[in-house]
Amino acid sequence: DNGKNPTTLEALKKSGLKGDHAYSFSSDHIFAGHANTSIQLAYLCYELSRPGNSRKQTRLKHELFETFGKPASLSSIIDDLEIVDKLPYLNALIEENSRVHSSLPGAEPRVVPRPYLLEMENGKKVVVPVGTVISCLPYAMHRVPTIFPEPDQFIPERWLPYDHEFQQEYKERIKLQQKYMMPFGKGIRMCLGRNLALMEMKMAIVNLYWHFYSRIDPNWCEVVTSKDPGSTPAPINLGSRNVGTNTTDEEKMTMYDSTTEDMFPFAIPYPPEQDDGFWGIPTSTIDWCEENYVVSKYVAEALNTVTNSVFILLASFATYHAYKNKLEPRFIFSALGFLLVGIGSWLFHMTLKYHFQLLDELPMIYATCIPFWSVFSEFKTKEQSMRIAWGTFMGANLLTVIYLYFRDPTIHQVSYGTLNVLIVIRSIRLRKKYVHDEVAAKQLHTTSILGIGLFLLGYLLWNLDIHFCTEVRIARRNWGMPYGFVLEGHGWWHILTGSGVYCSLVYEEYLRCFLTGTEKFFQFQWAYGFLPVVYCIDKPGLQRHRAVKKLAEEDSKYLEKMKKDL
């Protein structure tokens, strides 16, 4: 070759590889031998340079000083690979970096060369036909939360023995973690240069941090310094439309992914979540899955706030309707309590302040106490009814004191759920025993099923929002605004439970008509075809009926008094 070293392509050509095959081999070697290793080194240096990881950098330096002593001069180097290869914390850093920042995080497709039999968890067997493209995503496998708790956090200590962990337990845990790791691929096609890459990275890192400290230059970007240890990293705006818009170190250190799915047409990218906004740092004991201050700096959880409009509108309608149609005061107060819940929840989600959280949660208990007292005091004497009312009120006060002391939202949630279950059971029993009109019984049954169904569906979506928050947040950001609003599970909880509570209130109103013998003065209707309402169709007759009943009660009291006097 005229005394010149041949290029990679020339060497491949001499070996009989030409055209696409030669370029494929060449690109594989270049990327595998350079790009992947440089990506890993860049991210590990970045992680060690972050303010929140300063202790990790210090721990690495201490490990190096304890093993090799301090460098005599800038020209001193560490070259004993065998010792370097056995440094526990260095290995933990390398493992965790390759987990969090895999060089190839996306799909790694493979074509099935022959029929492949898979046995599913349920025992069924499935044949994957020849030619099927299958793929594994290292990013997803490295973030299985049951294997890697807090999967988005950089925690090298997960690769070291935990305190009080037996050696066998540690080995089994690491073996399971390695099963889900594939930074260099898996199987017979995994990276041939894996050990060379690890050697390069380890030698580069130990010699760099043996001599120097590193930090992120604040002139380059806005450095994220305050981040709760267990919080999710700030979401990154991906795609070509967001190039140049990312300002923090977290955002700038995101790999530009040209294969990232674009958002829906006319979608607006979600901005990064903010730790605080107009109302300051949140003080509430709970913070739902909706990201804070992404829609407006004046509203912490925009969708969770706005969806309380359903509570407020339905409660306002129920209050007005109960007053207009001469329903008993208990239903007006129930609706007003319902309204207070909506207002309190609006303020809570808008501010995420603890005092407004209480204005959301405590009215839920006290407002529910009214229908609880109502159904359990039916056919009781006035004295018995008063005892039930006082008992219910004192129970709510005791619950409030306990909740304020422990500040555990589970106490409130279980209590609220228990009250509602008891109300539903008692109401259904009263309907079956005292409502003999088939049409009315069917109307009440339909309303109860609708109310319970809406409530349970809202409860389901709320729990999905809690338990799959990470996946939901990713999907919302992929969709963009306003499409991502559809995935706000807690917002759906407001809409569905608000509608469910309204249906339950109407159910109690109509049931009460039969329990007081006033059903002939009222009529059940579906307003607008979907909204249950109870109309008074004979107000003069209802007033006469109540006047006669009141006189009868007064006469009964007078006769009782006369008997006692005699």
Automatic annotation (TrEMBL):
Protein source organism: [Candida] subhashii
Location of this chain's protein in the cell: Membrane
Entry protein name: YDC1
Keyword hit for Membrane: yes
Binding site residues for Ca(2+): 287-288, 290, 292, 301
Parts of the chain that traverse the membrane: 330-348, 354-376, 388-405, 440-462
Superkingdom of source: Eukaryota
Family listed: Belongs to the alkaline ceramidase family. Belongs to the cytochrome P450 family.
Keywords recorded for this protein, A-Z: Calcium, Heme, Hydrolase, Iron, Membrane, Metal-binding, Monooxygenase, Oxidoreductase, Transmembrane, Transmembrane helix, Zinc
Membrane topology recorded in Swiss-Prot or TrEMBL: Multi-pass membrane protein
Oxidoreductase as UniProt keyword: yes
GO molecular function: heme binding; hydrolase activity, acting on carbon-nitrogen (but not peptide) bonds, in linear amides; iron ion binding; monooxygenase activity; oxidoreductase activity, acting on paired donors, with incorporation or reduction of molecular oxygen
Pfam families, per the entry: Ceramidase (PF05875), p450 (PF00067)
Cofactors (names): Zn(2+)
Any single GO CC term annotated in Swiss-Prot or TrEMBL for this entry: endoplasmic reticulum membrane
UniProt xrefs under PANTHER family: ALKALINE CERAMIDASE 3 (PTHR46187)
Ligand binding (Zn(2+)): 349, 490, 494
BP GO terms, sorted: ceramide biosynthetic process; ceramide catabolic process
